Amino acid sequence: MVVDEKIKSAMSKIKHKIIVISGKGGVGKSTVSVNLAYFLALNGRRVGLLDVDIHGPNIAKLMGIEGQFMTGSEGRIYPVLKDNIKVVSMASLMTDQELPIIWRGPLKMKIISQFLGDIEWGELDYLVIDSPPGTGDEPLSVIQLIPDIDGSLIVTTPQDVATLDATKTINFSKTLNIPIIGVIENMSGFICPNCGAEVNIFGTGGGERIASQFNVDFLGSIPLDPKIVKLSDEGKPFVYVMNETPAGKAMVAIAKYIMEKVEKGNGK
User: Fold this and answer.
1) Is the residue at 17 inside a domain?
2) 252 is in which domain, residue-wise?
3) Hey, CA dihedral for 266, 127, 8, 52, is it positive or negative?
4) Residue 23 resides in a domain
5) What is the pLDDT of residues 195-216, one digit of tens each?
6) 268 inside domain
7) pLDDT in tens, 136-190
8) Backbone angles phi, psi at 10, to 5 degrees
9) Burial classification of residue 223, based on how many CB atoms lie within 10 Å of its CB (0-12 exposed, 13-18 middle, 19 or more buried)
10) At 74, which CATH number?
11) Number of domains making up the chain
């Protein structure tokens, strides 16, 4: 595929590009993307967050920027800025959030190309790309359009149906010669809000098992905490608001490892 010169120029100003993918929906991939972006920004990195889930963009909700729209002038589009994170999402282009986007592949690829090449990202240390579940048009377009992507993060939950789909994303990355930064097991145990005990509702160890099976890094497990759901609905990152809880500490440790690995060049 011939990559547009505008995309090459824009991406050349960004040091590290990470795509966050999952085999199935509902595993918390977008939540991981937002909290990774926040961790990086809190540690002095210049960060962009790109939501390429065209049909179900959730990043605007999770970032607390619903109703805020990207602006543009002279053929350039400017991201929404929130807490020093530059955010781009279809939700920031839509005046009616309840209307479905009924597009085939070529239209989706065109808008993703515009997100990469026409957005005024500027100089960034990281671009975190939140992709919809599966191995279809959106992640494929991103990988084809960004030739020097640092790698993929695989998000799963412990149960077999999720890890089965996660193996497909690992094979997807391998087939496209994209380095795999590692596997994150989300919702690994439920923290009881009353007694603080952990219950393995979805099982445990599935993410670590597939990481071992494919000889890729297991980055850690994040327990399920009801407070995360409430904070996410309010657009507040738990990596910041809940950084002393088991879930917050786990996310901080995972994000720190990712940052150190990528910046050492081991993500490739």
Assistant:
1) yes
2) 5-263
3) positive
4) yes
5) 767 777 777 788 999 999 999 9
6) no
7) 999 999 999 997 999 999 999 998 888 889 999 999 999 999 999 999 999 987 7
8) -65, -45
9) buried
10) 3.40.50.300
11) 1
